[in-house]
Amino acid sequence: MDAQKIELKSPLTTDAGPLFALVDQDRTNLARWLPWAATTLTIADERIFLRYCQGRIADKQLWLSVIWVAGQPAGMIDLHEFKDHHADVGYWLGREFRGRGIVSRSLQLTEQVGFEQLDLVKISLLAALKNDASRQVAVRNHYHQDGILRQHIPTLDGYVDAVVYSKLKSEYQKNV
Q1: What angle do CA 35, 150, 147 make, to 5 degrees?
Q2: Distance CA 132, CA 140 (A)
Q3: CB-based contact 69:76 (threshold 8 Å)
Q4: What's residue 173's pLDDT?
Q5: Pairwise CA distance, residues 172 & 112, whole Å
Q6: pLDDT class for 157, splitting at 50, 70, 90?
Q7: C-alpha to C-alpha distance for 34 and 42, rounded to whole angstroms
Q8: What pTM was computed for the model?
Q9: What is the per-residue pLDDT for 155?
Q10: Is pLDDT at 1 greater than 50 in this prediction?
Q11: Is 163 left (phi over 0), alpha (psi -120 to 50) or beta?
């Protein structure tokens, strides 16, 4: 993947249509790991979510970007749960964009923001135990596996175990 074609941009309400289309095309798979996918049923739902995020961004409770690939929205990535210079990272991609290194590149760009601009000392990544794709993102990006949280992630079928990964600022190497 050409790194020049991946950009992270602040969310706009005009992104609602294209982002909703990505969710709608892959709702069943996304909803396995991200319960919000099952309840985002219209472009209006997506627009409401983006407005909510814009408010949280303004309040410095969230850092969120739309992942753009070759001029089109491909998914989202964020830093949330800010406390004691720590934050959690979350992300999702539309089906057609997976398996191309886009999340890894987006994560590198997000780490740069987190460690260099937001002065974080640790970024944590939680992945469902059976979500091999997200777990591989953590491994490929040199996150340390810290442990397993039992029955931690809510899903449509109940709660599933989460693997917790982290990267410290001291382990971060600028590679963007």
Answers
A1: 110
A2: 12
A3: no
A4: 86
A5: 8
A6: confident
A7: 16
A8: 0.93
A9: 86
A10: no
A11: beta
